[in-house]
Amino acid sequence: MKPLLTAIVTGASEGLGKAFSVELARRGINLLMVSLPGTGLNHLSTYLQKSFDVKADYLELDLTLQESYTGIFDYLKQNNTTAHILINNVGLGNWDWFIDKSTAFYKTQLELNVMTPVMLTRVFLGQVDDSVTSYILNVGSLGGLFVVPKKATYGASKAFIAYFTKCMQLELHGRNVKMSLLSPGGINTKPELLVMNQKLKGIAAATIFEAEDVARIAIDGLFKGKKEIVPGAANKFLVTLNGLLPAFIKNAIVKRKLKDHG
Ligand SMILES: NC(=O)c1ccc[n+]([C@@H]2O[C@H](COP(=O)([O-])OP(=O)(O)OC[C@H]3O[C@@H](n4cnc5c(N)ncnc54)[C@H](OP(=O)(O)O)[C@@H]3O)[C@@H](O)[C@H]2O)c1
């Protein structure tokens, strides 16, 4: 009999995190979903339990707070549950000149994008049992692979996640733990992103995905033990091109785009 798996999903109330929760529940995996208080996790939990006959627990926590990391695993322990899957999804994006955001914004962004996944990975690895395969999915971004102005801290945080994941994949060699890096292009997770993305044309339009499709591709890749998951042919092509083009050409393209779009 296959063991019952439990997945922690951070930032589960909206966007990609919600899509991950639905995708995992659809595959018969129990959930512990985490998001800020009052973001509708109670309704999502009821819907998933009724629709997929899984346990869909949730915790309303602020993941910028240190006590939230241990709070998640204390909760699991109290319920005699071991988590087998960690989806490090929570993250805060932006598209602004560096000077236009406050220090408070950057503190929150770096806590959520960098500290939270690292700390949760550390606590998660402390409780895994190597007799069952465990999985960690770190949500990066194509933004972490390309050098783009107005994405200075976001891109840097995702570059950190890419580096962290690649190092950890080597460290975990020989352990029964699989870790994948997900590097998606744009995802229509919010109405304002949908409006912006609908204006794109050609290859740029082909880089955009729906959250449900990214979640399905990512979970497939995670269970197959893929080291890096880049959804879509256009995004894979851009990653290859990025590796081939010299920096001065890439910088010239970016500067031209900035002139066009401000
Ligand atoms: N959207 C894209 O185009 C795109 C592209 C590449 C990569 N990504 C990455 O994909 C991941 C998900 O992005 P998304 O677009 O789905 O984001 P999103 O729609 O903004 O959702 C973020 C989730 O995190 C929760 N959250 C925010 N602050 C929190 C906090 N302090 N404590 C606990 N939960 C908190 C949000 O809850 P609330 O309901 O309270 O807001 C929400 O559930 C991120 O890591 C992002 O960088 C996104």
Automatic annotation (TrEMBL):
Per the UniProt record, which residue ranges are transmembrane?
Answer: none
Q: Which PROSITE patterns match?
A: ADH_SHORT (PS00061)
A GO CC term assigned to this protein in UniProt: membrane
Alphabetically, the GO molecular function entries are: oxidoreductase activity
Taxonomic superkingdom: Bacteria
- Which keywords does the record carry? Oxidoreductase
Q: Which PANTHER family does the record match to this protein? A: DEHYDROGENASE/REDUCTASE SDR FAMILY MEMBER 7B, DEHYDROGENASE_REDUCTASE SDR FAMILY MEMBER 7B
Q: Which family does it belong to?
A: Belongs to the short-chain dehydrogenases/reductases (SDR) family.
This chain belongs to which protein, by name? Answer: SDR family NAD(P)-dependent oxidoreductase
